[in-house]
Amino acid sequence: GSGARESEWQARPIAVQWAGISKLIAGEIFFQREKQNGQIKMTLPEQLGVCKGTYLMTENHTGVWSIACNNGMSASGTLIAYGSGKGSSGEGLDEDGNPVKFTMGGR
Fold first, then answer.
1. What pTM did the predictor assign?
2. If DSSP codes are grouped into helix, strand and coil, which group holds residue 2?
């Protein structure tokens, strides 16, 4: 029963809206405390594919992210963190210029 170590990866669910995909996409964002970078993973509905990528927080609670999927789709954009335990959201475009948005809930 000891607390999570500082270096351990933590996962939070994210909900993704990707234009052209009618269903909401479920994913996870993986991060470590006090680290500026982490990983993003999402599974597209109806066996469309799996997407993986990374994000990097830059400054003032903002950052950039990019993902690539095993079906050839990809997307990238920016994200905003609302502070400890308050979640974050991101938005960007895929390779065809369709908007992609995601939100991560707080604790």
1. 0.85
2. coil
